[in-house]
Amino acid sequence: LSVLYKQGRHLEKRELKEMAKFFINQAKQYAAARPNYPIQLFEFIASKTPCHDLAWDVGTGSGQASRSLAGIYKNVIATDTSSKQLEFAAKLPNVRYELTPPVMSLSEIEQLVAPESSVDLVTVAQALHWFDLPTFYSNVKHVLKKPDGVFAAWCYTNPEVNAAVDEVFRRFYKEKLGPYWDKARRLVEDGYKGIEFPFEKIMDESTESQTFPVRFVTEREMGIEEFLTYLRSSSAYQTAKDKGVELLTAEMEGEFVGSWREDGEEKKVVRFPIYLLIGRVGGDRV
């Protein structure tokens, strides 16, 4: 992550360290079980940037988004505050990974990331809800090219498997994970509809509905162990674990295993709805 927020205020140093610890503990599980993003998502985003010279992927984690961006943009800067997360990121010749502090001044942005008005695209995958948005948006507008530089941020919501598994998951999500989610999770549950977005919105012109955020779906084939690893990778699970509470008890695991086996298929396609905020920085046009 780059710039964090919690409950409408800046985090204390102690809280920043605690939040960072969650993502350090999750790093290996994130790399192993989190879904990748569909190529259609990146093609749509890239079609909105006139140039494909430089992209900045903020809160890159283990680099799922930066890998896809590297196939489209000449150079990618991928930043995160967790060295453990970056250890699991794929090393590519046109991707520069940078370990950054949680809060950066404009001079640090220019030193560690890119100069003013030099970036074609800034992306944030599954992390915008943690940021101090006014500060972060100011930094984004500083580095994006004017007027056509693009900012894109997306989140994916809860997995969809089948009726049996989904019923168990809904109970687990509400009754077990529910008390341990940070308030920022509500922004994800709402598909980023309620999040501040001070950019010129870009709609999906290929559909009649013209909805915003723009909706995509990503899919991942999983077995039950991969699915359980995905559940353990959530920040709510990690919060509970740090408090000495095991949410995936033997009984709970048994319910998931039983529902998973009902259709006789060991591997299943798990679907994750994606909601994309995308817009141009705007400004004076020459």
From TrEMBL:
InterPro entries xrefs: Methyltransf_11, SAM-dependent_MTases_sf
The organism's place on the tree of life at top rank: Eukaryota
Pfam families: Methyltransf_11 (PF08241)
Domain Methyltransferase type stretches: 57-151
PANTHER family reported in the protein's UniProt record: OS01G0307686 PROTEIN
Record-given protein name: Methyltransferase type 11 domain-containing protein
Organism, scientific name: Brassica napus (Rape)
